[in-house]
Amino acid sequence: MTTTRLRHCLLAEALGTAVLLAFGTGAAVVDEQTHALGHGGVAAAFGLVVLVIIQGLGPTSGAHVNPAVTVAFWAAGRFPGRRVGPYVAAQLAGALLGSGLVRLVAAPGSLLGATLPAHGPGQALGLEMFLSFWLMLVILRVTAGAYEQGLLAGLTIGATVWLEALVAGPLCGASMNPARSLGPALVAGHLADAWLYVLGPVAGMLLAVAADRLLQLRTAVDPAGTPVSAGAGGPGAG
């Protein structure tokens, strides 16, 4: 990939992450002020914006918009290690930009849609690990082979984010994304629980990489030495 092409990717990652924060946490702030969306509406906003980002920016950068996703794709052998740092930097810059935009419409004292534990750090960490594990496993499975960059993949990933935010949002914020949590935390100056939303997603998504490898089909050989099943298709690019 040329330097120019990499710059395009980084711009797409920064822009996509900014849009994720602007519409996702923006929905939380709007509901905080107007009560017009409700929890279900905020969860829907996150799922829908993820779908839009994947369809709009996926062909350019892969639409990771999530440092944990980038690290997991690298661990899975589907993303070059030399680009992990630049991607993560672009995502964090985008998150700060998105949270800065949300701050323009937020009421004084707002936490800008920050993710916070409802019942202590232990539960939040466990939930973030599980939610991130399942999200990344879905991503790995639907971005391989014929599904890669297709509408079905975007719909499935967006629906997964929507479902997880709908069910677990009231308990832990359902971040699954260090950039999504660090943006509001840094801009609002509320960093006490931010470590949960870095460790949980990264650990959960790395576990998903291991689980995906276990789920890969292997060539089976019958007693006569004849292959009876073919392996899964090759991995797609992140």
TrEMBL record:
Question: Do you know which Pfam families this protein is assigned to?
Answer: MIP (PF00230)
For membrane topology, the record states: Multi-pass membrane protein
Q: Which UniProt keywords apply?
A: Membrane, Transmembrane, Transmembrane helix, Transport
Q: Where are the transmembrane segments?
A: 36-54, 87-106, 126-144, 151-174, 194-211
Localization, per the record, is: Membrane
Family stated for the protein in its record: Belongs to the MIP/aquaporin (TC 1.A.8) family.
State the protein's name: Aquaporin Z
